[in-house]
Amino acid sequence: MRRTLPAALIAVLTALSLAGCGNSDSGPVIDQVRESGVLKVGTEGTYTPFSYQGPDGQLTGYDVDVIRAVGDKLGVSVEFTQTPWDSIFAGLEAKRYDLVANQVTVNDERTQKYDLSTPYTYSEGVIVTRADDNAITSLADLNGKTTAQSATSNWAQVARDAGANVESVEGFVQAITLLKDGRVDATVNDNLAVAEYQKQTGDTGVKIAAETGDTSEQAFAARKDSGLMPDIDKALDELRADGTLAQISQKYFGTDVSAPTN
């Protein structure tokens, strides 16, 4: 039998609900994080070795470990939401989480649109082709070719700027699949991600055909004017000074990619 709540009780519940919504959306995000004791983080969970499922099925990776270390410095726990790259900033803007930890490359557009932390990864862009394809040996050779990229990634823009037609994919693994199937000519990505793929799979069907010639810097991203970044940057500075960032980097790459190479 359906029961009807008294009008006075409905009014009280509505007021409490509205009050709760107001608290969650008001004030700097850092204050909300410290009050709740939880930093909400968006990440792919499919981008090895940065954010992926380990052998035990748990989320792991370089970015995951770094943001957990940041959370420890802030004295809060980290709660992850896994989402595809092409919807990761939409989730941030919709306030599904407070911050993106997923190799966000620093560029002018993102700097204007989001709060970005100091970089915690430095890497090089490379072009991957099938092993038997010798037609692409430089970025200029992508002109008129088709590459597989996450549509909103910086690597997609690098490919477009070189004159390539970009086939949209959800992530790196799908890009490699299309490449091996002969449906695209190449994919542009981070040298660290490509090296990890080759190490894990031993795949001899693809190769690094060329370097893009640019060094990219990756950072955490939050909504503009979130108030988060001074605390995030302070934590990163402490983790860099005490050797934690270098230690996490050695764990995943065998070298320190948390600082620029000169």
UniProtKB/TrEMBL annotation:
Its main location: other. Residues 38-256 form the Solute-binding protein family 3/N-terminal domain. The keyword NADP does not apply. It is found in: Cell envelope. PROSITE patterns: PROKAR_LIPOPROTEIN (PS51257), SBP_BACTERIAL_3 (PS01039). CDD domains: PBP2_Ngo0372_TcyA (cd13711). Keywords: Signal. Belongs to the bacterial solute-binding protein 3 family. This is Cystine ABC transporter cystine-binding protein.
